Amino acid sequence: MTEAQVSTSAVVGEGTRVWELAQVREGAVIGRGCVLGRGAYVGVGVRVGDHVKIQNFAQVYEPAVIEDGVFVGPHVVLTNDRHPRAVRPDGQPAGADDWEPVGVSVRYGASLGARAVCVAPVEIGRWAMVAAGAVVVRDVPDFALVVGSPARRVGWVGPAGHRLSDDGGGHWHCPVTGSSFVETEGALREADSE
C-alpha cells in the first residue's frame, strides 16, 4: 500500500483520516474528524474545517477555504487560476511570479457532487448543493441547488439535502425536517432567522 504524503508543516486535526495516495501540502490546515479519500490533493495553505469529507481524487487548490461540514465528491476540482497558461507570451515557461492564485470558498454544510468543477474565484453558499458534473463559474447562494455547465439554479435544498417544496408566495419547506424557509429577491433564508 502506498502511503499518503502529509507535509510536516501541515496541521491535521484529531480524528481525521487521510487515505493512501492523498497529498496534503505545506501549511494546509485540516480540521477535526475529516476524511480525505484516496488520491485527494489539498494545496499549500488550504483551510479545511471540521467534519469535512473530501472524496477520492478530489483536487483542492490553494487558496481554497472549506468550512465545517462540507462534502467534496470524488474527482471534484477547485481551481485557482483566472488565466491559466503554461508559457508566457514570449514562449518561456510560466513560473510562480507570472500569476496570482485566487480561491474557491465553500461555506458551511455545502455539497459538491462528483466531478463538479468550481472555477475560481467563486463562493458556494451555506447548505448549497452542486450537482455531479456541474461547472460553477459564479457564486452559488445559500441553499441553492445548481446543475449544468455553466451551473444554474434549478431549486432549493435544505440542510437534510432534499429539495424543498414550494408553498407559494416565496415560502418553502423541507419535506424531511418540516423546516420553513422564505425566498426574497433570489435569496433563501430560514423562516425564523432575522
Could you describe the 3D structure shown?
The protein folds into two domains: 5-85 and 98-157, Hexapeptide repeat proteins (UDP N-Acetylglucosamine Acyltransferase, domain 1); 160-194. Helix content is 0%, strand content 34%. The chain contains no helices and 25 strands. The protein has strands at residues 5-6, 11-12, 17-18, 23-24, 29-30, 35-36, 41-42, 47-48, 53-54, 59-60, 65-66, 71-72, 77-78, 104-106, 111-112, 117-118, 122-124, 129-130, 135-136, 144-147, 152-156, 165-168, 171-173, 180-184, 187-190. It has an eight-stranded mixed beta sheet with strand order 3-6-9-12-15-18-20-21, with no helix packed on it. A hairpin with a 2-residue loop joins strand 24 (180-184) and strand 25 (187-190). The model has no long low-confidence stretch (mean pLDDT 96).
Task: List the SSEs and their pairings.
Blueprint: E1 5-6, E2 11-12, E3 17-18, E4 23-24, E5 29-30, E6 35-36, E7 41-42, E8 47-48, E9 53-54, E10 59-60, E11 65-66, E12 71-72, E13 77-78, E14 104-106, E15 111-112, E16 117-118, E17 122-124, E18 129-130, E19 135-136, E20 144-147, E21 152-156, E22 165-168, E23 171-173, E24 180-184, E25 187-190
Parallel strand pairs: 1-4, 2-5, 3-6, 4-7, 5-8, 6-9, 7-10, 8-11, 9-12, 10-13, 11-14, 12-15, 13-16, 14-17, 15-18, 16-19, 18-20
Antiparallel strand pairs: 20-21, 22-23, 23-24, 24-25
